[in-house]
Amino acid sequence: CQLRVSRGVQGQCMHEGLWKYSRHPNYFGEAMFWWGLFLIGLSGKFSWWWAGCGAMSITCLFIFASIPMMEKRSLERRPEYQRIVDTTSMFVPWFPAKVHRDGPEAQSNTTAETTPYHKS
After folding, report:
1. In angstroms, what CA-CA distances link 73 with 8, 11, 69, 70?
2. At how many degrees (to 10) do helices 52-61 and 25-44 cross?
3. d(Cα 33, Cα 36) in Å, to the nearest integer?
4. Which in 49, 70, 84, 107 has the greatest CB count within 10 A?
5. Separation between Cα atoms, residue 59 and residue 38, nearest integer Å
6. What is the rounded distance in angstroms from the CA atom of residue 104 to the CA atom of residue 97?
7. Could you tell me if residue 27 is left (phi over 0), alpha (psi between -120 and 50 degrees) or otherwise beta?
8. What are phi and psi of 46, to 5 degrees?
9. Do residues 106 and 100 make contact, with C-beta atoms less than 8 angstroms apart?
């Protein structure tokens, strides 16, 4: 068996695999790891409730600091990234949203899927 690596053009936006459902699935996985550790500790001894502070801290760090900074940088470097922001959940993996298109063909697209997970 050989591992084949397909190389895209440098600076190209990733929108396949997990990145089709979340713009930052790696951050989501990291946060879930810490929440899992918290729940395991909590199941052993309820007095470990305070361990949730670490899970909450890492989640807030990602949502309110790391992700906004990375997305600002990505939008500055790759204008096509806006399409991904408009259709892909920021953090929690979720189904891609449908977006209204401008122009005559917009009349055939009557509704846009909206969920709280698609915030930019």
Report:
1. 20, 12, 6, 5
2. 170
3. 5
4. 84
5. 13
6. 20
7. alpha
8. -65, -25
9. yes
Q: What pLDDT, in 10s, does the model give residues 47-104?
A: 878 889 999 999 999 999 999 999 999 999 998 999 999 999 999 999 998 866 654 4
The model's pLDDT over 22-32, given as tens digits with 9 standing for 90+, comes to: 999 999 999 99
Torsion, Cα 7 11 12 15, to 10 degrees, reads 100
**Helix, strand, coil % over all residues of the chain, rounded to 5:** 60, 0, 40
b/e map of 26-59 (b: 16 or more CB within 10 Å)? ebbeebeebbeebeebeeeeeeeeebbeebeebb
Q: How distant is the alpha carbon of residue 61 from its chain centre?
A: 14
